[in-house]
Design brief:
Oligomer: single chain
Order of helices and strands: HEEEEHEEHHEE
Distance between the termini: 53 Å
Mean pLDDT: 86
Helix content: 10-25%
Strand content: 25-35%
Structural class: alpha+beta
Length: 168
């Protein structure tokens, strides 16, 4: 799989997992439906039953716009497994033209949205990186070999150095 194939699989996936985090870095992961247009993923708060309209994922995006999403394929034949992970910057769509475009994309992918368009906020995730893995793309590991790492289209952000508490 290459980047183009990873984006095709991302766009074709019917459901994904969206990870947001609050300002303190506490993660929150939910399944979600979405549409991909170019390098932007769109999703909307729809009419499915929810405990509250004050959704944690929206609050998290307002506090910390960095998100990741994952789509995958599972079969008992593990030689056919794959996943695609995308990271990006989320934003609430304010522009009415972009909102309408996003809702049309979602409706073209999901029949329930044709019958009942989402009334809530529309969110855009502008992708900043994509990584992927596919089981059949590499020969199986032999016992004792180190695990392989996923392919990426962009380097990871630098990690913050760990600080050790000073001894008194």
């Amino acid at each position: 799989m290459d980047r183009e194939a990873a984006l095709r699989r991302l766009g074709a996936a019917r459901v994904g997992r969206l990870a947001t985090a609050d300002a303190g870095g506490v993660p929150h992961v939910v399944p979600f439906v979405f549409a991909l247009h170019g390098e932007t993923v769109y999703w909307a708060v729809d009419r499915k039953p929810k405990r509250s309209l004050d959704l944690r994922r929206i609050r998290n995006i307002r506090e910390n716009p960095n998100v990741e999403l994952v789509v995958d394929h599972y079969e008992d034949d593990w030689g056919k497994l794959w996943w695609v992970r995308a990271r990006g910057t989320a934003r609430l769509v304010e522009d009415e033209g972009e909102r309408e475009r996003a809702l049309r994309l979602l409706a073209s992918k999901y029949e329930p949205y044709r019958e009942s368009p989402p009334p809530g906020p529309v969110v855009a995730v502008d992708l900043t990186g994509v990584s992927w893995w596919e089981a059949g793309a590499q020969p199986p590991l032999e016992s004792g070999q180190p695990p392989r790492t996923p392919r990426r289209d962009a380097p990871r952000a630098p990690r913050r150095p760990r600080t050790r508490p000073r001894s008194p």
